[in-house]
Amino acid sequence: IFALIVFACLVGEGYTNLPSSPRLFCIFNHNEDACRYGIGIGVLAFLACIFFFMVDVYFPQISNATDRKYLVLADLGFSGLWTFLWFVGFCFLTNQWAWTRAEDVRVGADSARAAITFSFFSIFSWVSGATGEP
């Protein structure tokens, strides 16, 4: 859910324009990479969650112990990797937001703050997946 919120905030109001120009730019210090990174990890995290949810649904029907072990290790490894990527995303978005000039952001400041906040919450969400806690 956090990944979906980050993605929606950045797609919905992460890009804006100046009143004098129709050209859109990322509200995070005009850095397109910040918006792309947040959208990218948000979409991939959401798709991975769907995949691992389906694995959890079909897990009791998998009789091969080796396959079960590899699926659990894949879930653990992916959760660890995505914990790191959310941490990088949180730091990147926060840094770019700190350098953003107030006059460049007329609309979308709340969405930018929400994206930063929920990327921070995502760190703990993925840590709980990596440690095996429910």
Which features does this protein show?
single chain, 134 residues, mainly alpha, two-stranded antiparallel sheet, 4 helices, 2 strands, elongated, transmembrane, Synaptogyrin, signal
Summary, kept brief:
The chain crosses the membrane at residues 38-59, 71-99. With 134 residues, the chain is an all-alpha fold. The protein is built from four helices and two strands.
Task: Explain how this protein is built.
The chain is an all-alpha fold. The chain has one domain. It is 71% helix and 3% strand. The chain is built from four helices and two strands, in the order H-E-E-H-H-H. A two-stranded antiparallel sheet has the order 1-2. A hairpin with an 8-residue loop joins strand 1 and strand 2 (25-26). Helix 2 (32-58) runs antiparallel to helix 3. The model has no long low-confidence stretch (mean pLDDT 90).
